[in-house]
Amino acid sequence: MTPHAPTVEVLEAQEAEDRQRRVAGSLIARGCRVGDRVVFCLGSSADLICAVLGAARIGVIPVLLNATLTEAERGVLIADAQPTVTVLGQADLSLLLTGRPAELAPFPLTRPMHYTSGTTGRPKGVTTGVWDEDTARAVFEDEAAVWQFDPHDLHMVCSPLYHTVSVRFSAGTLLSGGSLAILSRFDATTALEVLRRLRPTTAFLVPTHLQRILQLGELGGDEQFASLRLLAHAGAPCPPSLKRATMERVRPGAVWEFYGSTEAQFTVCGPDEWLEHPGTVGRARVGRRLAIAAVDDGDLPESIDDEVGTIWCDMPPFARFSYWGNERATREAWRGTACTVGDLGRLDGDGYLYLTGRRHDLIISGGVNVYPAEVEAVLAAVPGVVQLAVFGRPDDQWGQKVCVAYVADGPGAEDDMRAAAATHLAPYKRPKEYFGTGELPHTATGKVMRRAIPRHLGLASDSDA
Predict the structure, then answer these.
(1) How far apart are CA 202 and CA 307, in angstroms?
(2) Which of 304, 311, 268, 272 is nearest to 287 (CA)?
(3) Taking a C-beta distance cutoff of 8 angstroms, is the pair 312, 292 a contact?
(4) Strands, E assignment, 4-87
(5) Which 8-state DSSP code applies to residue 450?
(6) Which of 68, 114, 372 is CA-nearest to residue 260?
(7) Which of 21, 203, 302, 374 sees the fewest Cβ atoms within 10 Å?
(8) Residue among 437, 429, 442, 430 at smallest CA distance from 459
């Protein structure tokens, strides 16, 4: 069955302001206080971004969950977040818009809490806590200085609003007086129609989105997206050929890349910089300092040129984050004013950062994080599965695709694992390929060598894993 085309909503700043005030009034009437949490788990819409900002501008922390999670997956995160209010459907969301208008702070007093995971697959809520108004202004100005939000902007929202980047660009545009064109879900044909008909001035897309748009048969061979002054991308490695093809479709200077995570934003890279330093994700943003450290270093070094290690970034005070209810993970992420999310990279002599690996075992598919341990926990429960390991393989469309290698004691295991994945895992977490094998590669201590699996299966070298 072919899914119906997504809807497109245009939201102007003044209309958004009115909706935000009504949401704020509803939350206050329901007993929400500063520092409380409200959970949202539904697809992108104008109402959703207004609800998120309405909460944040009274100091209530929005918790944004992936709308494709299964009920069981969603329930675990809701229990962890301990919300005062939970919004799981359009009826709940619409009701929030009927409140008595309340006063709002000029800028959001918090960032939404998004869940990410470590190598164990245990979800962790990333939160900034609640700021005072001066700090809130500093956060907004830090973002605005990079992207130059303008009241004449129309920003195309393609990625789901439960992604941190979508909220950041949307909020910055609206608070600067601009407008949004919001796709209820990404669809390449619809995105192309928006580019042609509404002529947005800014957009954020992950490389998978870019590739799908450029592969459309109805796209003219020399068609230009001349309205875009800014086309930002991040979320997954972007093949150089795709980046160059994108640059050919927009005005000079429009294609920008950045590197960051749910936790923090680290670098920014303009098109001229990328052309001069192919493969880089840029240099540290203003007010930040990058450093590369060996995993066991006790101190943050001044600089290690062209040596691979863990990426650390010294952050301004307003960029501090913590992991909700997880003091140990928070301590491990920080050394004084510098933080890491465990990614690996190197710095050249000019301060340009090159990524050499993501968080240990992390798979980034279509710009979305997939954690092998979480997938393995579901598949390992299937009868007949003796051992398995989930890993990522390079993929031209998705950046990486989720795969599983397994050892089974009889036939039918693959079908049963596919059924279990369809029942218990969101679509983006489900393996795309299954490889049966007689054994998996192990270290001398008995641990599965995940990065060696592709070579073990005759698929690729270790460095491609």
Answers:
(1) 36
(2) 268
(3) yes
(4) 8-11, 37-40, 61-64, 85-87
(5) G
(6) 114
(7) 302
(8) 437
How far is the C-alpha of 413 from the C-alpha of 418, rounded, in Å?
Answer: 9
Model pTM score: 0.82
CA dihedral of residues 337, 206, 125, 144 (deg, nearest 10): 50
- 104, containing H or E segment: none
Q: Are the C-beta atoms of 323 and 114 separated by less than 8 Å?
A: no
- The domains of the chain, with CATH numbers, are 8-357 (3.40.50.12780), 363-464 (3.30.300.30)
| The token pair that represents 364 in the structure block | 């980034």
Torsion sign across C-alpha atoms 252, 253, 254, 255: positive
Q: pLDDT per residue over 91-142, tens digit each?
A: 999 999 999 999 999 999 999 999 985 444 578 999 999 999 999 999 999 9
Which residues 6+ apart lie within 8 Å of 7 measured at CB? 183, 184
The tokens 């190598």 sit on which residue? 119
